[in-house]
Write a structure and sequence with these properties.
The chain has about 600 residues and is an alpha/beta fold. It has 4 domains: about 1-40 and about 165-250, Glucose Oxidase, domain 1 (3-Layer(bba) Sandwich), CATH 3.50.30.10; about 50-155, Enzyme I, Chain A, domain 2 (Orthogonal Bundle), CATH 1.10.274.10; about 285-435, Phosphoenolpyruvate-binding domains (TIM Barrel, Alpha-Beta Barrel), CATH 3.20.20; about 460-590, Alpha-Beta Barrel (TIM Barrel). The chain has helices spanning about 50-80, 85-95, 100-110, 115-130, 135-155, 180-185, 205-210, 245-265, 295-300, 325-340, 370-375, 380-390, 410-430, 445-450, 450-455, 465-475, 490-505, 520-530, 540-550, 555-565, 570-585; strands spanning about 1-5, 15-20, 20-25, 25-35, 35-40, 170-175, 190-195, 215, 230-235, 240-245, 285-290, 305-310, 340-345, 400, 440, 460-465, 510-515, 535. Strand 12 (about 305-310), helix 10 (about 325-340) and strand 13 (about 340-345) form a beta-alpha-beta unit. The longest helix has 30 residues, at about 50-80.
Length: about 600
């Protein structure tokens, strides 16, 4: 692996704004450091029979050096981030120690009489191509791990050195950063990370958050638009990059950075306080979670628990469903880590825009085979997951939630399989929480219409606004042509939410929300006034939402909501709520 510089395509001095995916919060202002990595150029070369031993020795030495490097990175990461953040590097070490893989590589060197670097590149490349061909983002990220191990081996075979130091403070710009890059570069005065590729689950995103370094990923072309020392602003809150910022722009972002620092300092004392209004109405403020790496941050942010655990994380990148024991280990880890706070595990939500283990051709997958429908059609898979959840529930802090429910029959069928899982565990003498709470997600209009019937069958309802709004307004929010019609504050949406909450509470169950609307500060007072019992939000939004809840009276929120319910357009509602927020909370950023 070698590093080189590319000429900037960005005209010098011209201020340009780029948008990417906000991966780690914070604002960085400073010069760019271009960290460009090119895959080693590998030539296929035939060797003489007497050279076989030399090539295998070269490979053995490269493996030893690579192993030593990864060990150093792992120990540095452990010291800086703790044991739970080093699994990425443990996985890479396991790959480097894969006897089957390297027996095949050594065998090919001897039988094909080819140079070691060619065989390594070709053999590991097979794994890389398979993973890169997968459709989900998670598997793509794991493909980068495989590529990182391969390139590390090749660099050591070719006796090339990697650059891991930079002079002074800088924002690191790269096409992509591996887990090792992200951690090792942090030994320098790194102000931020900006990459062409990557998503919210990328190593750059996860490790940057743990390192508390602002980062933006998915910028597409930034590595071709800058050169060393170009001045930059990186806004990890909004995913905005400004190249060649003017003095006025720099002052604006310096002021924003200072406002956030002051605001976050004021929020810190709230973390251990309850989410309670001034007139003592208590609501539960939970976090949405997907990865175990998020748990520490969730606890630090003062969450009342996990209101949505996306269990389909366990499926991504796999050709088969995880076993009952594999699932049990993960669910038990969650329960132990969050105890005594509650963890709501959503059963596998696959299909539509989500992962599908079994590819199916559907004209409209969003209206097709997904969510609870898939699980009811795969009772053996569903049974294994429910058994695993029950086995992990012995601390009595786990609840289960069924996604994409559209009618009462589905709930009863799911409960019947759950009852059978309980019966099996009783016969086997395996303990579980016999009173484990059951909930359903209300994200289909038909479920909202029969909310009171569903409430008679379960212990809670959780509103999934992302899909509910999409279905209610007949708008695909991923379609740029109509995405402006996806309106959280559309009067039809607000009135529908009121219906769900009222019908659920009328039947004596609590009603929560785990969609994006729950984490929108502009919606907090409105949702509070509608009577929502639980907000489940992305972890970084917990302090802001708690600040709003603790700064208003429930009676005031109810009065505001009554006025909103009489309004007839989204613009009217948003303007009214913005005016209230600007007056009460001028420091909280509003979209």
């Amino acid at each position: 692996m070698t590093e080189s510089k590319v000429k900037a395509e960005q005209p010098k001095g011209q201020e340009t704004v780029l948008k990417g995916i906000p991966a780690s919060p914070g604002i960085a202002i400073g010069p760019a450091f271009l960290f460009m990595k090119h895959a080693p150029i590998i030539e296929e070369r035939s060797i003489l029979p007497e050279e076989k031993e030399r090539e295998t020795v070269r490979l053995e030495q490269a493996i030893v050096r690579s192993h030593k490097e990864l060990r150093k990175i792992l120990e540095f990461a452990r010291q800086k981030l703790g044991d739970d953040k080093v699994k990425i590097f443990e996985a890479q070490l396991m790959f480097l120690e894969d006897a089957v893989l390297f027996d095949a590589i050594y065998g090919r060197i001897r039988s094909e009489l080819k140079n070691a670097e060619f065989v390594v590149h070709d053999e590991i490349g097979k794994y890389h191509r398979i993973m890169l061909a997968a459709k989900d983002e998670y598997t793509h990220e794991r493909a980068h791990d495989v590529e990182d191990v391969r390139n590390r081996l090749l660099r050591n075979l070719l006796e090339q050195r990697a650059i891991s130091r930079l002079e002074g403070s800088a924002i690191v710009v790269s096409q992509n950063l591996t887990a090792g890059d992200t951690v090792i570069l942090s030994r320098n005065e790194v102000l931020g990370y900006a990459t062409d590729i990557g998503g919210i689950t990328s190593h750059t995103a996860l490790l940057s958050r743990a390192l508390k370094i602002p980062a933006i990923v998915g910028l597409k072309t930034i590595s071709h638009m800058v050169q060393d020392d170009v001045q930059m602003v990186l806004d990890g809150y909004s995913g905005t990059i400004v190249l060649n910022p003017t003095e006025e722009t720099i002052k604006k972002y310096e002021a924003k950075r200072e406002r956030y620092r002051e605001f976050e300092a004021r929020l810190a004392p709230l973390r251990d306080l309850p989410a309670e209004t001034l007139d003592h109405r208590h609501v539960e403020l939970s976090a949405n979670a997907e990865f175990e790496q998020e748990l520490d941050f969730i606890k630090i942010q003062g969450a009342d628990g996990i209101g949505l655990y996306r269990s389909e994380y366990l499926i991504v990148g796999r050709e088969v469903f995880p076993t009952e024991d594999e699932q049990y280990a993960q669910y038990k880890l969650l329960a132990e880590a969050m105890y005594p706070k509650r963890v709501i595990i959503r059963t596998f939500d696959i299909g539509g825009d989500k992962l599908m283990v079994e590819p199916t051709k559907e004209n409209n997958p969003f209206l097709g085979w997904r969510g609870i429908r898939v699980m009811l059609d795969r009772p053996n898979v569903f049974m294994e997951q429910l058994r695993a959840i029950l086995r992990a529930s012995t601390r009595k802090n786990i609840a289960v939630m069924f996604p994409m429910v559209s009618n009462l029959k589905e709930v009863r069928q799911a409960k019947k399989i759950l009852d059978e899982a309980k019966h099996q565990l009783r016969k086997e003498g395996i303990p579980y929480d016999s009173r484990m709470k059951i909930g359903v997600m209300v994200e289909v209009p038909s479920a909202a219409v029969v909310a009171e019937d569903l409430a008679e069958e379960v212990d809670f309802l959780s509103i999934g606004t992302n899909d509910l709004i999409q279905y209610l307004l007949a708008v695909d929010r991923g379609n740029d042509v109509v995405s402006s019609l996806y309106q959280e504050f559309n009067p039809a949406v607000v009135r529908f939410l009121r219906r769900i909450i009222e019908r659920g509470k009328r039947k004596g169950v609590w009603v929560g929300m785990c969609g994006e609307m729950a984490g929108d500060p502009l919606a907090t007072i409105l949702l509070l006034g509608l009577g929502l019992d639980e907000f489940s939000v992305v972890p970084k939004m917990l302090p802001e939402i708690k600040k709003i809840i603790r700064s208003v009276k429930y009676s005031e929120a109810q009065r505001i909501t009554k006025r909103v319910l009489k309004m007839k357009t989204e613009d009217e509602i948003k303007e009214f709520l913005r005016t209230i927020m600007k007056k009460k909370f001028p420091d909280i950023p509003i979209n």
